[in-house]
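Our working data are protein records whose layout never changes between entries. An example says more than a description, so a record of this kind follows.
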Amino acid sequence: MTISIALRLLSVCLLLGTPSSGSAVTPPWSWPVAPPHPVVAPFVAPPDPYSAGHRGIDIAASPGAQVLAAAAGVVTFSGTVVDRPLVVIRHDDGHVSSIEPVVGSVEVGSSVARGAQIGTVGTGGHCADGCVHFGVRLDGVYVNPMLLLGEVPPAVLLPLTATAAAQARGWALR
């Protein structure tokens, strides 16, 4: 299991590439909502597939605002599940994204280009009004969407025992 996760992480790193000196790397995906797009709840990987976690990011967005395709692909679902409207897209690079609550304006089977409008921000789901949940899977495993958006925060190595300062910053091991 650990090797599988490491291989997936390596494949994402290879997908993103390494910037050469003096050149900027364009992220492979774009944000599904217009800026500003503050993340109000980050991705939290569960320790195993059946444990609790936050399998996506929550992005502040005004109800009724446009929602855009983060990357080119084919719409595989556009409708309501339980109490929330959502849109699911299978992307050309093998990823599958879902975003909710989104009142879809696209039909299942239609191709969408990166940045094309796929709907508007709706209501429902675990996000408070004014928020969308953006999840991404690769081979059925959720990955941090920030990797594809080029917004991965720097890694911070933690001591095995947290100091008071680390705990105050939220860096403590839980």
